[in-house]
TrEMBL record:
It comes from Paraglaciecola hydrolytica. GO terms for biological process: regulation of translational termination. Belongs to the TRAFAC class translation factor GTPase superfamily. Classic translation factor GTPase family. PrfC subfamily. InterPro entries: EF-G-like_DII, EFG_III/V, G_TR_CS, P-loop_NTPase, PrfC, RF3_C, RF3_dom_3_sf, RF3_GTP-bd. GTP binds at residues 17-24, 85-89, 139-142. Residues 8-276 form the Tr-type G domain. This is Peptide chain release factor 3. PROSITE patterns: G_TR_1, G_TR_2. GO terms for cellular component: cytosol. SUPFAM superfamilies: EF-G C-terminal domain-like, P-loop containing nucleoside triphosphate hydrolases, Translation proteins. It is found in: Cytoplasm.
Amino acid sequence: MSFQQEVNKRRTFAIISHPDAGKTTITEKVLLYGNALQKAGTVKGKKSGQHAKSDWMDMEKERGISITTSVMQFPYKECLVNLLDTPGHEDFSEDTYRTLTAVDSCLMVIDAAKGVEARTIKLMEVTRLRDTPIITFMNKMDRDTRDAIDLLDEVEDILNIKCAPITWPIGMGKEFKGVYHLLRDETFLYKSGQGHTIQEVRAIKGIDNPELDKAIGIYAQELRDMLELVRGASHEFNHDEFIAGELTPVFFGTAMGNFGVDHMLDGLNAWAPKPQGRNTSERQVESSEEKFSGFVFKIQANMDPKHRDRIAFCRIVSGKYEKGMKMFQSRIAKEVRISDALTFLAGDRELLEEAYAGDIIGLHNHGSIQIGDTFTSGENYRFAGIPNFAPELFKRIRLRDPLKQKQLLKGLIQLSEEGAVQVFRPLQNNDLIVGAVGVLQFDVVVARLKGEYNVDALYEHVNVSTARWVECKDERKLEEFRNKAEVNLALDGGDNLTYIAPTMVNLNLAQERYPDIQFLKTREH
Ligand code: G4P
């Protein structure tokens, strides 16, 4: 297969949904189609007691939320799919945000009984920043759901995107009969209790086929009448509008019953964009370029307790990774040799021989890689648009056992490299201040410090209410500011100068007093 064919067959996407809509279940079924799992039921398996390969953290299991981002690669028909998992809890939106910079399309899963929910609205806002194409799956049709037309109206009104139904549901709940495929003019009949397998689904060709009346009785005529209405009231699928993020193809089904998931995957296969280029500080880089480039959107420490390491997740933007190749790391302007990148086949890590634009590779990080880092084949540019957000909540962290100061600092710096929390070390004292965007992150930090670094820590109140990264082009003025404002200055985990303000008023005054200094709320890596 040629280089271009390898790139063109890749589809890199993430699922966006509200908690409980069925993201985990659909992931499990999608993997079943990819033959990546022999038998679905191992991704979460709350009941069976088996745990997902991506659910590696105890906290995650206890709380039933997915904190980490993992990557799964599997083949589906002609394409090779990379599915990036996004954390489900809203406290981790920063992480999710960065993950969404690494995909080319998204699958939006909606609980058809509930309709559009809060977290979906937020995530759609994020996808809008890059006009990411969206495929929609209306899930849980085996339950009593809302009316299908209402659901489409709601998506159009609230999420401001046109809906093009590709399949249409017949009945719902106990009376769910299946779906009619508008483009294929075929009805697929649903049988319950088949969720753990890839079903032999019975299909009836042609809407006027008398077989249909035999199979589903009065529902057949109802469907015919309904379709006239649907065709009149909804949008036809248009590929350009889909690629522009203006229209979403909509599929109906049940993830639990593994019904309709393959229709959605066929849509992804046929319509979702191949790996897209990305903008850099210098120029647009296209996926068709044969020279390697990529950016790090996520770092995770201790992914696998057995390995005790830190992995940097790198999205390849152009070219090809080959084992042992040299890469140029732009931020430190150094050439590095990468001999042991990882791939993520259904959550298992495997040593990688080669990977192409669109793929995610895991790089071992011994402290020299940061989120947002760009790797190239020698050209000096940086990928744009991978931000850190200033935290809004702060606590001082203190040890129960004072002898472990070194481990504490090491743990905090490693966790801050992941980008989930930030650590600040004031210039004038030995405090360690943890900053987070959401409350839950504080608990995660303490649990992980204990589990992974054997450090017992607790929090205390600290008089900090906001932080800003500080920059100034004029070295002399920066030095002057550093001297005068030292009480409010700290270094973050990456040694960047930060202004930590006890109040917003204090921050405003500082901004007025030092007009030459930039106080930044986000920092592009
Ligand atoms: P999430 O990752 O988006 O949070 O959702 P998840 O897949 O965990 O699904 C949330 C709940 O909804 C689960 O039930 C799951 O079994 C159920 N579910 C998912 N898809 C369907 C569907 O198509 N039909 C029906 N009826 N239910 C569905 P749970 O009771 O919380 O967990 P479990 O005990 O079943 O594992």
